[in-house]
Amino acid sequence: MDDLLKLDGRIVVVSGAGGGGIGTMVTRMAAEAGATVIAVSRSKENLDEHVAPLAQQGLSVIPVAADASTDEGIGAVIEQTRATAGDLYGLVNVAGGADPSTWMPSTRVSRSDWRELFTANLETAFFMSRAVAAELKKHGKPGSIVSIASISGMNTAPFHIAYGTAKAAVTAMTRTMALELAADNIRVNAIAPGVTETAASHTYVDEDPERDRRAIAMGRRGRPEEQAGAILFLLSDLSSYITGQTLLVDGGLSLKWSHLDADNTSLFLKDETFRAAIKRWDDTDSGGGDER
């Protein structure tokens, strides 16, 4: 059984590896499973802080400072895989997320906000997946691609429509690419995390264990290593007959989906900041957001 989890001799690319959350944790766990991990982040400082220590611990991790939302950045990542000993095998698309300032009614979303969230959460994942899949096909190699969708893309996402829609599109992308690539023995899957304890989540989600107990079936938030464990499963040969699937990793939050208040605002948002900001909008005005 343990052998099926091993990634010895395989190269795995992780985008969004430098944030100290899920991306950093899956970098660690994939390397501990024997992979050589190409750890990608736009921020060299983040790589120095969160990824370089993994290499110093003896894990096979290669930090690459590159912007995976650009062709140049993706090209640099692919060149690094070619220069690295081993066979390219896996890709984990973690890069993405949302600026909390984009929480607002649908009638206020600007074109620039919409484009920014789709670039970060959909386009980057697609074009990274396309590049890795093309490289695998060229060499006739099997592989596994795992993207980060979201519970917000599996359910309604009030006041967060651009993010929720982009993540729903990740699920659709996953299914379509899985079908196209199945004959090449390249599997494509995703996970949809629920509320997870990361540094980024603490910028807009406050601490309330009692609320977590009520809203989440398992009574607590997820941990980065639990999301990374699901990703490692989908990367590994333990899931060799699974493709085109989006695995909910949410502690049962979606079973209850009771985190919205009477105004359809998420109870997880900090009351003094984002909840107030959302509710300050007056949708009786001209609407439509700006056209930035």
From TrEMBL:
One of its GO terms (molecular function) is oxidoreductase activity. The keyword Oxidoreductase applies. Keywords: NADP, Oxidoreductase. Belongs to the short-chain dehydrogenases/reductases (SDR) family. This is Oxidoreductase. It comes from Mycobacterium celatum.
